[in-house]
Design goal:
The protein is an alpha/beta fold and 237 residues long. The protein is built from 7 helices and 13 strands.
């Protein structure tokens, strides 16, 4: 599929050339316009000189690491959504990437269906290269969340990429938990893995890790139904 003139421009930052070209080919098949970089330094030059809508970022890179790239003020100020990809990142590294603003974390080998869902989601919520919101659209909705089968929390709001829950004193940075989301959509509870991304004044925000494509689709549909479409967005199916 040849990308259209208004296609999502996706910068793929990956130091393994074979993986880089494979990801670029896949991004192109999805109708997006891929741009490749083998280093974070090259990626920075590209975002400073060309329009970029989304970055697929490996964490382990020669020279500047992916985390160092996320820390750069010159990049952070641009508000470009980042999807981190890595096969050997530790849980603390995954947490730090999410805390630095990455909207999702995908472990290698990358599930291409999952990546397709994420890019499709960003395509819908992107206008002229900018998200309507800094992070994924969220719906203010409350429902029970069971944690590792032992505790029950209350969700405060939800996006297809994560959930905010009431503050939990014992939850620490980098903590990974299994959640059972009792979505009020008539379906069965949804089991997901999540990592604490950040703590806010009124709650803890957890990002989902390696969601299955059907679960991502269900969350997206539910969030869109609850919040309604934003400006220029299609109605939920």
């Amino acid at each position: 599929m040849n990308p259209s003139a208004d296609a999502l421009r996706v910068l793929v930052v990956e130091d393994e050339y074979g993986v880089l070209t494979a990801l670029q080919d896949f991004v192109r098949e999805l109708g997006c316009q891929p741009v490749g970089a083998l280093t974070a330094e090259e990626a920075l030059r590209l975002v400073e000189s060309e329009p970029v809508d989304v970055v697929l970022l490996d964490l382990r890179l020669p020279g500047m690491s992916g985390l160092d790239f996320l820390r750069l003020r010159a990049f952070r100020d641009r508000g470009i959504p980042v999807v981190v990809i890595s096969g050997i990142a530790t849980e603390p590294e995954a947490h730090e990437a999410l805390e630095l603003g990455a909207i999702d974390f995908l472990r290698k080998p990358i599930g291409l269906d999952r990546l397709a869902d994420v890019l499709s989601f960003l395509q819908v919520h992107t206008l002229k290269g900018r998200l309507y919101e800094r992070r994924a659209p969220r719906a203010a909705v409350t429902f029970p969340v069971r944690v590792d089968t032992d505790w029950e929390w209350k969700a405060l709001d939800l996006s297809p990429l994560g959930v905010k829950v009431a503050p939990q004193a014992w939850l620490r940075a980098g903590a990974t938990v299994q959640l059972l989301l009792a979505l009020p959509d008539g379906g069965p509870p949804l089991a997901v893995d999540a990592v604490l991304a950040r703590t806010e004044e009124n709650g803890d925000v957890l990002s989902f890790v390696n969601l299955k494509p059907p679960d991502f689709a269900r969350l997206t549909k539910f969030v869109n139904q609850v919040r309604g479409p934003g400006p220029g967005e299609p109605d939920a199916p």
